[in-house]
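Recap slide: Na(+)/H(+) antiporter NhaA, sequence and predicted structure.
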Amino acid sequence: MPTSDRTETRAPRWQGYAEAARVSEILRKEAVGGALLVIAAVAAIIWANSPATDSYFALRDFRFGYEPWHLELSLGAWAADGLLAIFFFLVGLELKREIVAGDLRRFSTAVVPVTAAIGGVAVPALIYVAVVRGQDGLAQGWAIPTATDIAFAVAVLALVGSHLPSPLRIFLLTLAVVDDLIAIGIIAIFYTEDIAVLPLLIAAGVIAGYGFIAQRYRALFANRPSMAWLVLLPIGFIAWAFLHASGIHATIAGVALAFTIPVKPARGVTEGPRAKDLAHEFEHRFRPVSAGFAVPVFAFFAAGVAVGGADGILRAATDPVALGIVAGLVLGKPIGILLAVRTLTLVTKIRLHPALRWVDMLGVSLLAGIGFTVSLLIAELSFPSGSTEGDDAKIAIMIASLLASLGAAGILLARNRRYRQISAAEAVDKDADGTPDIYQEERGARADKE
Protein backbone atom coordinates (compact mmCIF):
# COMPACT_ATOMS: atom_id res chain seq x y z
CA MET A 1 0.00 0.00 0.00
CA PRO A 2 1.39 3.48 -0.81
CA THR A 3 2.77 5.49 2.09
CA SER A 4 0.28 8.31 1.64
CA ASP A 5 -2.65 5.87 1.81
CA ARG A 6 -1.28 4.19 4.91
CA THR A 7 -0.86 7.53 6.66
CA GLU A 8 -4.33 8.69 5.69
CA THR A 9 -6.08 5.55 6.89
CA ARG A 10 -4.19 4.95 10.13
CA ALA A 11 -3.77 8.44 11.54
CA PRO A 12 -7.33 8.76 12.92
CA ARG A 13 -6.95 5.46 14.82
CA TRP A 14 -3.67 6.36 16.54
CA GLN A 15 -4.12 7.71 20.08
CA GLY A 16 -0.66 8.88 21.19
CA TYR A 17 -0.69 12.36 19.67
CA ALA A 18 -4.26 13.09 20.82
CA GLU A 19 -3.46 11.87 24.32
CA ALA A 20 -0.31 13.99 24.48
CA ALA A 21 -2.39 17.03 23.52
CA ARG A 22 -4.96 16.19 26.18
CA VAL A 23 -2.32 15.81 28.89
CA SER A 24 -0.71 19.10 27.84
CA GLU A 25 -4.08 20.82 28.19
CA ILE A 26 -4.52 19.38 31.69
CA LEU A 27 -1.06 20.56 32.71
CA ARG A 28 -1.79 24.10 31.61
CA LYS A 29 -4.94 24.25 33.71
CA GLU A 30 -3.27 22.85 36.82
CA ALA A 31 -0.77 25.74 36.99
CA VAL A 32 -3.42 28.09 38.37
CA GLY A 33 -4.60 25.54 40.92
CA GLY A 34 -1.04 24.94 42.09
CA ALA A 35 -0.50 28.67 42.62
CA LEU A 36 -3.73 28.96 44.64
CA LEU A 37 -2.67 25.95 46.70
CA VAL A 38 0.62 27.63 47.64
CA ILE A 39 -1.07 30.95 48.41
CA ALA A 40 -3.62 29.26 50.70
CA ALA A 41 -0.93 27.32 52.57
CA VAL A 42 1.29 30.39 53.05
CA ALA A 43 -1.70 32.44 54.26
CA ALA A 44 -2.54 29.74 56.81
CA ILE A 45 1.02 29.59 58.14
CA ILE A 46 1.21 33.38 58.46
CA TRP A 47 -2.15 33.63 60.22
CA ALA A 48 -1.43 30.67 62.55
CA ASN A 49 1.84 32.30 63.65
CA SER A 50 0.55 35.87 63.91
CA PRO A 51 -0.81 37.67 67.01
CA ALA A 52 -4.26 36.61 65.77
CA THR A 53 -3.38 32.91 65.97
CA ASP A 54 -6.33 32.11 68.27
CA SER A 55 -8.81 33.34 65.66
CA TYR A 56 -7.33 30.98 63.04
CA PHE A 57 -7.70 27.90 65.22
CA ALA A 58 -11.16 29.04 66.38
CA LEU A 59 -12.22 29.24 62.73
CA ARG A 60 -10.66 25.88 61.87
CA ASP A 61 -12.33 24.16 64.86
CA PHE A 62 -15.77 25.77 64.46
CA ARG A 63 -18.29 22.93 64.29
CA PHE A 64 -21.59 22.67 62.46
CA GLY A 65 -23.69 20.02 60.73
CA TYR A 66 -26.16 17.23 61.44
CA GLU A 67 -25.05 14.91 64.22
CA PRO A 68 -27.38 11.89 63.63
CA TRP A 69 -25.54 11.29 60.35
CA HIS A 70 -22.17 11.88 62.04
CA LEU A 71 -21.95 15.12 60.09
CA GLU A 72 -21.41 17.62 62.89
CA LEU A 73 -17.82 18.42 61.91
CA SER A 74 -15.32 21.23 62.27
CA LEU A 75 -14.53 23.42 59.28
CA GLY A 76 -11.17 21.68 59.03
CA ALA A 77 -12.86 18.27 58.98
CA TRP A 78 -15.41 19.39 56.39
CA ALA A 79 -12.50 20.49 54.19
CA ALA A 80 -10.56 17.23 54.67
CA ASP A 81 -13.50 14.83 54.45
CA GLY A 82 -15.86 16.75 52.19
CA LEU A 83 -14.12 19.19 49.86
CA LEU A 84 -11.19 16.84 49.28
CA ALA A 85 -13.66 14.23 48.01
CA ILE A 86 -14.12 16.50 44.97
CA PHE A 87 -10.38 16.34 44.33
CA PHE A 88 -10.39 12.54 44.62
CA PHE A 89 -13.43 12.38 42.34
CA LEU A 90 -11.39 14.06 39.60
CA VAL A 91 -8.44 11.78 40.37
CA GLY A 92 -10.78 8.82 39.96
CA LEU A 93 -11.96 10.13 36.59
CA GLU A 94 -8.36 10.52 35.42
CA LEU A 95 -7.49 7.04 36.62
CA LYS A 96 -10.48 5.43 34.89
CA ARG A 97 -9.76 7.32 31.68
CA GLU A 98 -6.15 6.10 31.75
CA ILE A 99 -7.31 2.50 32.34
CA VAL A 100 -10.05 2.54 29.69
CA ALA A 101 -8.59 4.75 26.97
CA GLY A 102 -5.16 5.94 28.07
CA ASP A 103 -1.69 4.60 28.76
CA LEU A 104 -2.78 2.18 31.49
CA ARG A 105 -4.80 0.12 29.00
CA ARG A 106 -1.59 -1.07 27.30
CA PHE A 107 0.84 -3.17 29.31
CA SER A 108 3.86 -1.92 27.38
CA THR A 109 3.21 1.72 28.28
CA ALA A 110 1.64 1.17 31.70
CA VAL A 111 4.30 -1.07 33.22
CA VAL A 112 6.99 1.64 33.49
CA PRO A 113 4.99 4.32 35.38
CA VAL A 114 3.19 1.68 37.46
CA THR A 115 6.51 0.13 38.49
CA ALA A 116 7.88 3.62 39.19
CA ALA A 117 4.87 4.42 41.39
CA ILE A 118 5.30 1.22 43.41
CA GLY A 119 9.00 1.95 43.96
CA GLY A 120 8.14 5.55 44.82
CA VAL A 121 5.80 4.35 47.56
CA ALA A 122 7.85 1.49 49.02
CA VAL A 123 11.25 3.18 49.45
CA PRO A 124 9.98 6.37 51.22
CA ALA A 125 7.95 4.21 53.62
CA LEU A 126 11.00 2.07 54.41
CA ILE A 127 13.17 5.15 54.95
CA TYR A 128 10.61 6.68 57.32
CA VAL A 129 10.30 3.45 59.33
CA ALA A 130 14.09 3.19 59.55
CA VAL A 131 14.40 6.77 60.85
CA VAL A 132 11.70 6.43 63.56
CA ARG A 133 12.62 2.88 64.53
CA GLY A 134 12.41 2.35 68.28
CA GLN A 135 10.19 5.41 68.87
CA ASP A 136 6.82 4.39 70.33
CA GLY A 137 3.79 5.36 68.25
CA LEU A 138 5.70 7.09 65.46
CA ALA A 139 5.72 4.25 62.96
CA GLN A 140 2.01 4.84 62.28
CA GLY A 141 3.04 7.78 60.10
CA TRP A 142 4.84 5.50 57.61
CA ALA A 143 2.45 6.39 54.77
CA ILE A 144 2.92 10.18 55.00
CA PRO A 145 5.95 10.37 52.64
CA THR A 146 4.51 7.89 50.13
CA ALA A 147 2.09 10.29 48.41
CA THR A 148 2.58 12.55 45.39
CA ASP A 149 0.48 15.70 45.06
CA ILE A 150 -0.76 15.40 41.48
CA ALA A 151 -2.06 18.99 41.34
CA PHE A 152 1.12 20.56 42.73
CA ALA A 153 3.50 18.35 40.73
CA VAL A 154 1.90 18.92 37.34
CA ALA A 155 1.60 22.64 38.10
CA VAL A 156 5.36 22.90 38.65
CA LEU A 157 6.03 20.88 35.50
CA ALA A 158 3.71 23.14 33.51
CA LEU A 159 5.54 26.23 34.76
CA VAL A 160 9.09 25.03 34.04
CA GLY A 161 8.65 22.52 31.22
CA SER A 162 7.16 24.24 28.18
CA HIS A 163 9.56 22.44 25.80
CA LEU A 164 9.99 19.11 27.60
CA PRO A 165 8.98 15.97 25.65
CA SER A 166 5.29 15.11 25.89
CA PRO A 167 6.06 11.49 26.96
CA LEU A 168 7.68 12.94 30.10
CA ARG A 169 4.48 14.76 30.99
CA ILE A 170 2.43 11.62 30.32
CA PHE A 171 4.81 9.60 32.51
CA LEU A 172 4.41 12.04 35.42
CA LEU A 173 0.64 12.18 35.13
CA THR A 174 0.32 8.38 34.95
CA LEU A 175 2.76 7.90 37.84
CA ALA A 176 0.91 10.45 39.98
CA VAL A 177 -2.48 8.89 39.22
CA VAL A 178 -1.25 5.39 40.14
CA ASP A 179 0.44 6.87 43.21
CA ASP A 180 -2.89 8.40 44.27
CA LEU A 181 -4.63 5.06 43.72
CA ILE A 182 -2.11 3.42 46.07
CA ALA A 183 -2.64 6.24 48.59
CA ILE A 184 -6.41 5.70 48.38
CA GLY A 185 -5.91 2.01 49.09
CA ILE A 186 -3.63 2.81 52.04
CA ILE A 187 -6.21 5.19 53.52
CA ALA A 188 -9.02 2.66 53.08
CA ILE A 189 -7.08 -0.30 54.53
CA PHE A 190 -4.74 1.14 57.16
CA TYR A 191 -6.58 4.24 58.37
CA THR A 192 -10.02 2.76 58.90
CA GLU A 193 -10.64 1.40 62.41
CA ASP A 194 -14.30 0.68 63.14
CA ILE A 195 -16.72 0.04 60.28
CA ALA A 196 -20.48 0.41 60.67
CA VAL A 197 -21.94 -2.22 58.36
CA LEU A 198 -25.43 -0.76 57.78
CA PRO A 199 -24.28 2.70 56.58
CA LEU A 200 -21.64 0.98 54.41
CA LEU A 201 -24.27 -1.22 52.75
CA ILE A 202 -26.53 1.78 52.17
CA ALA A 203 -23.59 3.71 50.68
CA ALA A 204 -22.83 0.78 48.36
CA GLY A 205 -26.46 0.68 47.23
CA VAL A 206 -26.55 4.43 46.59
CA ILE A 207 -23.29 4.24 44.62
CA ALA A 208 -24.75 1.39 42.55
CA GLY A 209 -27.83 3.51 41.81
CA TYR A 210 -25.58 6.44 40.96
CA GLY A 211 -23.69 4.24 38.51
CA PHE A 212 -26.93 2.92 36.97
CA ILE A 213 -28.05 6.47 36.18
CA ALA A 214 -24.58 7.53 35.01
CA GLN A 215 -24.25 4.64 32.57
CA ARG A 216 -27.68 5.39 31.08
CA TYR A 217 -27.52 9.15 31.13
CA ARG A 218 -27.85 9.41 27.34
CA ALA A 219 -31.22 7.65 27.38
CA LEU A 220 -32.45 9.34 30.57
CA PHE A 221 -31.35 12.83 29.55
CA ALA A 222 -31.60 12.53 25.76
CA ASN A 223 -32.74 16.11 25.26
CA ARG A 224 -30.30 17.75 27.68
CA PRO A 225 -27.46 15.35 28.59
CA SER A 226 -25.61 18.14 30.42
CA MET A 227 -28.37 18.10 33.05
CA ALA A 228 -27.24 14.67 34.27
CA TRP A 229 -24.86 16.21 36.79
CA LEU A 230 -27.74 18.08 38.47
CA VAL A 231 -29.40 14.75 39.21
CA LEU A 232 -26.23 12.87 40.12
CA LEU A 233 -24.80 15.57 42.40
CA PRO A 234 -27.31 15.12 45.30
CA ILE A 235 -27.14 11.32 44.94
CA GLY A 236 -23.35 11.54 45.18
CA PHE A 237 -23.63 13.63 48.33
CA ILE A 238 -25.91 11.01 49.93
CA ALA A 239 -23.39 8.28 49.07
CA TRP A 240 -20.60 10.38 50.56
CA ALA A 241 -22.60 10.97 53.77
CA PHE A 242 -23.33 7.29 54.36
CA LEU A 243 -19.76 6.27 53.58
CA HIS A 244 -18.57 8.87 56.09
CA ALA A 245 -21.00 7.48 58.67
CA SER A 246 -19.66 3.96 58.06
CA GLY A 247 -16.22 4.93 59.37
CA ILE A 248 -14.38 4.68 56.04
CA HIS A 249 -12.66 7.93 55.10
CA ALA A 250 -15.21 9.77 53.00
CA THR A 251 -12.75 10.81 50.26
CA ILE A 252 -12.95 7.18 49.08
CA ALA A 253 -16.51 8.00 47.99
CA GLY A 254 -15.11 10.39 45.39
CA VAL A 255 -13.09 7.63 43.74
CA ALA A 256 -15.90 5.05 43.98
CA LEU A 257 -18.38 7.43 42.33
CA ALA A 258 -15.88 8.42 39.63
CA PHE A 259 -15.36 4.80 38.64
CA THR A 260 -19.05 4.52 37.71
CA ILE A 261 -18.88 7.42 35.22
CA PRO A 262 -18.58 6.49 31.52
CA VAL A 263 -15.40 7.87 29.95
CA LYS A 264 -16.11 7.09 26.29
CA PRO A 265 -18.49 8.91 23.94
CA ALA A 266 -21.39 7.19 22.23
CA ARG A 267 -20.19 4.51 19.78
CA GLY A 268 -19.74 5.86 16.28
CA VAL A 269 -20.29 9.49 17.33
CA THR A 270 -17.40 11.85 16.58
CA GLU A 271 -19.08 15.25 16.44
CA GLY A 272 -21.67 17.21 18.38
CA PRO A 273 -22.63 17.14 22.11
CA ARG A 274 -22.89 13.32 22.14
CA ALA A 275 -19.20 13.09 21.22
CA LYS A 276 -18.36 14.27 24.75
CA ASP A 277 -18.77 11.65 27.46
CA LEU A 278 -20.17 12.30 30.93
CA ALA A 279 -16.68 12.24 32.44
CA HIS A 280 -15.77 15.17 30.19
CA GLU A 281 -18.87 17.03 31.42
CA PHE A 282 -17.97 16.41 35.07
CA GLU A 283 -14.35 17.40 34.57
CA HIS A 284 -15.45 20.58 32.83
CA ARG A 285 -17.72 21.55 35.72
CA PHE A 286 -15.80 20.32 38.75
CA ARG A 287 -12.14 20.93 37.90
CA PRO A 288 -12.43 24.70 38.54
CA VAL A 289 -14.22 23.92 41.82
CA SER A 290 -11.47 21.52 42.85
CA ALA A 291 -8.45 23.56 41.77
CA GLY A 292 -9.88 26.96 42.63
CA PHE A 293 -11.72 26.21 45.88
CA ALA A 294 -11.72 22.69 47.35
CA VAL A 295 -7.97 21.98 47.40
CA PRO A 296 -6.89 25.52 48.43
CA VAL A 297 -9.45 25.56 51.28
CA PHE A 298 -8.21 22.16 52.47
CA ALA A 299 -4.62 23.40 52.32
CA PHE A 300 -5.61 26.53 54.25
CA PHE A 301 -7.04 24.53 57.16
CA ALA A 302 -4.47 21.70 57.03
CA ALA A 303 -1.26 23.74 56.71
CA GLY A 304 -1.89 26.14 59.59
CA VAL A 305 0.65 25.14 62.23
CA ALA A 306 1.83 27.29 65.14
CA VAL A 307 5.57 26.80 64.68
CA GLY A 308 6.48 28.37 68.01
CA GLY A 309 9.39 30.50 66.83
CA ALA A 310 13.00 29.38 66.74
CA ASP A 311 12.42 26.77 69.46
CA GLY A 312 9.62 25.17 67.45
CA ILE A 313 11.73 25.08 64.29
CA LEU A 314 14.63 23.52 66.22
CA ARG A 315 12.28 20.94 67.74
CA ALA A 316 10.87 20.03 64.33
CA ALA A 317 14.36 19.81 62.85
CA THR A 318 15.32 17.13 65.37
CA ASP A 319 11.99 15.29 65.51
CA PRO A 320 12.31 11.77 64.02
CA VAL A 321 8.88 12.19 62.41
CA ALA A 322 10.00 15.31 60.53
CA LEU A 323 13.35 13.80 59.59
CA GLY A 324 11.69 10.63 58.32
CA ILE A 325 9.18 12.57 56.21
CA VAL A 326 11.77 14.89 54.66
CA ALA A 327 14.14 12.00 53.93
CA GLY A 328 11.29 9.91 52.53
CA LEU A 329 9.96 12.58 50.16
CA VAL A 330 13.19 14.26 49.05
CA LEU A 331 15.44 11.19 48.90
CA GLY A 332 13.14 8.17 49.00
CA LYS A 333 10.89 9.21 46.12
CA PRO A 334 13.63 9.69 43.49
CA ILE A 335 15.60 6.67 44.74
CA GLY A 336 12.53 4.44 44.68
CA ILE A 337 11.33 5.60 41.25
CA LEU A 338 14.70 5.46 39.52
CA LEU A 339 15.69 2.17 41.16
CA ALA A 340 12.39 0.53 40.21
CA VAL A 341 12.52 1.70 36.59
CA ARG A 342 16.21 0.85 36.21
CA THR A 343 15.65 -2.64 37.61
CA LEU A 344 12.73 -3.12 35.21
CA THR A 345 14.85 -2.16 32.19
CA LEU A 346 17.67 -4.45 33.31
CA VAL A 347 15.66 -7.62 33.92
CA THR A 348 13.18 -7.24 31.04
CA LYS A 349 13.20 -6.05 27.44
CA ILE A 350 11.17 -2.95 28.35
CA ARG A 351 12.95 0.35 27.72
CA LEU A 352 12.26 4.03 28.31
CA HIS A 353 10.48 5.99 25.63
CA PRO A 354 13.06 6.98 22.96
CA ALA A 355 12.38 10.68 23.63
CA LEU A 356 13.33 10.41 27.33
CA ARG A 357 16.70 10.53 29.05
CA TRP A 358 17.61 9.40 32.54
CA VAL A 359 18.33 12.97 33.61
CA ASP A 360 14.74 13.82 32.62
CA MET A 361 13.56 10.94 34.78
CA LEU A 362 15.62 12.28 37.69
CA GLY A 363 13.87 15.64 37.43
CA VAL A 364 10.42 14.08 37.37
CA SER A 365 11.25 11.67 40.20
CA LEU A 366 12.27 14.65 42.35
CA LEU A 367 9.00 16.31 41.37
CA ALA A 368 7.15 13.26 42.69
CA GLY A 369 8.54 14.16 46.13
CA ILE A 370 5.96 16.93 46.39
CA GLY A 371 3.55 15.25 48.77
CA PHE A 372 1.58 18.28 49.87
CA THR A 373 -2.20 17.63 49.68
CA VAL A 374 -2.41 13.86 50.17
CA SER A 375 0.52 13.81 52.63
CA LEU A 376 -1.21 16.46 54.77
CA LEU A 377 -4.36 14.34 54.74
CA ILE A 378 -2.49 11.19 55.80
CA ALA A 379 -0.68 13.18 58.51
CA GLU A 380 -4.04 14.22 59.95
CA LEU A 381 -5.12 10.57 59.94
CA SER A 382 -1.83 9.37 61.48
CA PHE A 383 -1.50 11.67 64.48
CA PRO A 384 -4.06 13.44 66.73
CA SER A 385 -4.98 16.99 65.75
CA GLY A 386 -2.83 19.53 67.59
CA SER A 387 -0.25 16.94 68.70
CA THR A 388 3.46 17.73 68.50
CA GLU A 389 3.99 14.87 66.05
CA GLY A 390 1.14 16.04 63.85
CA ASP A 391 2.41 19.64 63.76
CA ASP A 392 5.98 18.56 63.06
CA ALA A 393 4.73 16.25 60.31
CA LYS A 394 2.97 19.15 58.59
CA ILE A 395 6.06 21.37 58.87
CA ALA A 396 8.17 18.56 57.40
CA ILE A 397 5.73 18.02 54.51
CA MET A 398 5.91 21.68 53.52
CA ILE A 399 9.70 21.81 53.82
CA ALA A 400 10.10 18.58 51.84
CA SER A 401 7.67 19.75 49.15
CA LEU A 402 9.61 23.01 48.83
CA LEU A 403 12.96 21.20 48.58
CA ALA A 404 11.57 18.72 46.04
CA SER A 405 10.10 21.57 43.97
CA LEU A 406 13.37 23.50 43.93
CA GLY A 407 15.49 20.44 43.12
CA ALA A 408 13.17 19.32 40.32
CA ALA A 409 12.83 22.85 38.93
CA GLY A 410 16.61 23.25 38.76
CA ILE A 411 17.06 20.08 36.69
CA LEU A 412 13.97 20.49 34.52
CA LEU A 413 14.69 24.15 33.74
CA ALA A 414 18.13 23.16 32.47
CA ARG A 415 16.61 20.36 30.40
CA ASN A 416 13.89 22.69 29.13
CA ARG A 417 16.54 25.13 27.88
CA ARG A 418 18.26 22.25 26.12
CA TYR A 419 15.08 21.13 24.38
CA ARG A 420 14.29 24.73 23.44
CA GLN A 421 17.70 25.01 21.78
CA ILE A 422 17.05 21.80 19.87
CA SER A 423 13.65 23.07 18.74
CA ALA A 424 15.15 26.36 17.59
CA ALA A 425 17.99 24.67 15.71
CA GLU A 426 15.89 22.08 13.93
CA ALA A 427 12.49 22.78 12.40
CA VAL A 428 9.92 20.14 13.29
CA ASP A 429 8.88 18.39 10.07
CA LYS A 430 5.25 17.50 9.72
CA ASP A 431 3.50 15.14 7.36
CA ALA A 432 0.25 15.71 5.57
CA ASP A 433 -1.83 14.89 8.66
CA GLY A 434 -0.03 17.52 10.77
CA THR A 435 1.43 15.05 13.26
CA PRO A 436 5.02 15.77 14.41
CA ASP A 437 7.72 13.31 13.33
CA ILE A 438 8.32 11.87 16.79
CA TYR A 439 4.74 10.57 16.87
CA GLN A 440 4.80 9.47 13.23
CA GLU A 441 7.97 7.48 13.87
CA GLU A 442 6.45 5.79 16.88
CA ARG A 443 3.29 5.02 14.94
CA GLY A 444 5.35 3.61 12.06
CA ALA A 445 7.30 1.41 14.45
CA ARG A 446 4.05 0.01 15.83
CA ALA A 447 2.77 -0.60 12.31
CA ASP A 448 5.95 -2.52 11.43
CA LYS A 449 5.51 -4.73 14.47
CA GLU A 450 1.96 -5.47 13.45
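Confidence is low (pLDDT under 50) at residues 1-15, 445-450.
The longest strand covers residues 63-64.
(End of recap.)
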